[in-house]
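Dear V.,

Thank you for sending over the compound details. I've combined the ligand you provided, NAP, with the protein sequence from our construct and run the structure prediction for the complex. I'm sharing the raw inputs here so there's no ambiguity about protonation or stereochemistry in the SMILES, which I know was a concern on your side last time.
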Amino acid sequence: MTGMLSPQAKDNLMGALDLTGRVALVTGATSGIGAATAVLLAQRGAHVLVHGRSRSLGESVVAAVRGHGGTADFVAADLREAPSVRQLARRAMDLGGGRVDLLVNNAGIYPLGPTEKTTENEVDAVYAVNVKAPFLLVAELAPAMAERGSGAIVNVSTMVAAFGMAGTALYGSSKAAVELLTKAWAAEYGPRGVRVNAVRPGPTRTEGTAGMSEALDALAAQAPVGRPADPKEIAEAIAYLASDAASFVQGAVLPVDGGRTAV
Ligand SMILES: NC(=O)c1ccc[n+]([C@@H]2O[C@H](COP(=O)([O-])OP(=O)(O)OC[C@H]3O[C@@H](n4cnc5c(N)ncnc54)[C@H](OP(=O)(O)O)[C@@H]3O)[C@@H](O)[C@H]2O)c1
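Below is the predicted structure of the protein with NAP bound, written out as structure tokens.
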């Protein structure tokens, strides 16, 4: 279709998606959806702060970004520890020259299984990484965005935040909290120019789901598209919500699940 557009229309289209001059912090960017998002945001012009725990994986994502002509830095932090989350925010501001324009709360853990077999440590870890860390990062970074009058936050949820499925009580509930936080933050920071939205992915082939090979296919088969997503397909939706192309999209949860929650 873009072949039918005039060169100026094409420029306008890419212009709205362009992220040149923005500083983006992507959590959990050493792997899967986060790594694909880091590379795509950098291709669109953002300077990307690649977060994770593994320095070697982080440096390889930074190298991939640079290989595509982009710029990035790696920042390590364990999101289970509140002081480490706050330090991540400070470090990101420093590396961003005093600003973070885009925050992608992507890092997440997803242990699945029966409620009675779930340990207290798992409950604490899932809520620390999936809920408390995004909460603290927004508390640290959104006020400065609001003061500048612009910024975008994209939270990564999951389709199992939208319906009950056996084995997903802990994980799904943590992401349901993230979806409500998305709307509450849209109400809180939206009037001062910060857009807060979420993507709700379906089954996606990542390093994290590598061990679920057939179960992932079976889950994906329930959706109209019928196959797991490639991480790049989720990254495209995140990059859209982070960009000015989504300037009127606020407090939304965008299903990117092959149609699973629609049918
Ligand atoms: N894959 C799917 O099917 C799917 C579906 C729906 C939603 N999602 C959501 O999408 C997001 C990404 O999923 P994914 O499959 O791409 O994940 P993944 O391949 O398992 O990667 C997880 C990322 O989170 C980071 N991380 C995990 N625990 C951390 C901690 N304690 N401190 C700091 N970083 C930590 C990891 O970094 P290090 O290892 O370097 O620490 C890694 O970069 C998650 O929020 C997930 O819930 C995934």
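A first observation: Residues 120-148 form the longest helix (29 residues).

Warm regards,
I. M.
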